[in-house]
Amino acid sequence: MKPPPNKRVSSASQRKQQHLLDVKIRVGLERERRVRAVAGFICKSVLLVALGVGVWLGGKEAWRRCVWENPDYFVREPEVKTDGTLTREQILAAAEIVEGRNILTVDLGKSRSALEMLPQVESAEVQRAFPNRVTILVTERRPIAWLTPKWGDDPTTSERALLIDARSIVLRCRVLLPEYYHLPIISGVETANLVPGQRASAFDIQAALKLVQLNADSTRFQVRNIDLVKGYCLVVTDQRRAKITFGFDKLDTQLTRLNRLLDAIEPTHQEIRTVNLIPERNVPVTFYDPAQEAAEAAAAEAVAEAAQAKADKSKGAARNSGNTARPADAAKKPSTPAPKTKAPSASPGGKPSPAEPLKKPFNLNG
Questions:
Q1: Were 119 and a residue from 60, 75, 85, 196 both cysteine, which residue would form a disulfide, CB within 3.0 to 4.6 Å?
Q2: How far apart are CA 330 and CA 327, in angstroms?
Q3: How far is CA 182 from the centre of its chain?
Q4: What is the pLDDT of residues 40-90, one digit of tens each?
Q5: CA 45 to chain centre
């Protein structure tokens, strides 16, 4: 037997009514529930805010009492290490580190930058160790020469003299150390145009510094003064008062020629008076002559005596012109003749010494 087909037992309108919810609730109860929910949220928010403020204020007060105002975190006896002339007080003042302040107030980067801005400081390092230790390490610049405006100026007493290091940084001498007395002098420099703490970039100063560094370890030839007044060369005075002329270029090659010259004259026991190292061949050299030195000394003494006699004579004439009550016989008295100048001494051979020694070229390549 065949089953009957599927048929819906309800109509469309009946099915539509079956999906409707029959909910009956009072309006007052719903409003009361919403009010309780909003009030609970507000109370929780206020509680959380109050808790956060309390924690922040409590932590701040605890930090203030336990750290900022705690004597255990106050800086005590900062350790300062330096290899130069700066004093402990000068370094602490420049770094703005005060003993008795909280260690957290020390700005390490700012203190290091302030120290390195000092002209005589090459590098600085500031370290902090809790709870109350601060260490400052300062490396100062090492000058290698003096700078003076004129040849013959004493840099240890002149206010216009400056120091300069190997990096061409100009320094002002605040404390005169014993090793400064033996530094070579670079003269002919207008020091008024140089600023301490900045680099001297002039070409002639750079060449003079290079010569000082190249000759730092030499014992045969020691630089005492480098004169830059000519502007096209370096006139060097060594420990034996010899005048040696260098060009600005190829200083190492010129030093090699000088060493070869010293090797050549060492067996003769002669002392160089002047030498010009600018020519590469036939270097002109002069040597000291004892007879000539004696003649020059006598001539200089004679000139000094003549100048003194002339000054005495002028003073006597001024006194005579001011005295109006002088007797008549005094006016007729002949004046005392000025002393005669001393003639320069002669050489051992009976002939007067020449004013300058004969310059003979020295062939380094022969």
A1: 196
A2: 5
A3: 19
A4: 899 999 999 999 999 998 888 888 888 888 889 899 989 999 988 889 999
A5: 63
